[in-house]
Write a structure and sequence with these properties.
It is a single chain. The protein is an alpha/beta fold. The protein has one domain: Cytidine Deaminase, domain 2, CATH 3.40.140. It contains 2 helices and 8 strands. Strands 7-6-5-4-2-3-1-8 form an 8-stranded mixed sheet. A hairpin with a 2-residue loop joins strand 2 and strand 3. The longest helix has 14 residues. Bound molecules: zinc ion (ZN). The site of zinc ion has 7 residues, from strand 4.
Length: 136
């Protein structure tokens, strides 16, 4: 798996709409997992690229990340857990270490507090929720 992320700036936040979108997709995918790529601009996560053809096994949606086109704005991953468990699984940690700097996990019941962000080592990191930004 050749995945490269070339943006180097610190990821400090996520746009509110992107977060709401991820929670909605997670809810719709239940009881299966959903996985996707996070795209950031100037340190702010603004877009979620949903993984095509997510498996319906209810496990390891994240493993299909290799199917996604990875570009310069890709900064990490997002996936859902159909259980209330917000902790990265051992499998998740292996993938976090391979690619990206920020990884979001969304857990059942997919409400506004059902998510956490982690760095590539699986350590929880704070992400600020930011209202839609317009740049230049
Ligand atoms: Zn997971």
């Amino acid at each position: 798996m050749e995945i490269e992320a070339t943006t180097v700036e610190e990821i400090f936040g996520i746009e509110r709409e992107a977060l709401i979108f991820m929670l909605e997709v997670s809810r719709k995918s239940h009881p299966n997992e959903f996985a996707g790529i996070l795209r950031a601009e100037r340190g702010l996560i603004r877009e979620v690229l949903v993984l095509p053809g997510t498996r319906s096994s209810g496990r390891s949606a994240l493993l299909e990340l290799h199917m996604l086109p990875i570009d310069r704005s890709a900064c990490g991953t997002v996936h859902s857990h159909p259980s209330p468990d917000l902790q990265p699984s051992p499998e998740d940690l292996v993938l976090f270490a391979k690619f990206g700097r920020v990884h979001v996990i969304i857990a059942y019941p997919y409400d506004r507090s059902s998510w956490r962000a982690y760095d590539h080592r699986g350590r929880e990191i704070p992400l600020k929720i930011v209202d839609a930004v317009k740049w230049g």
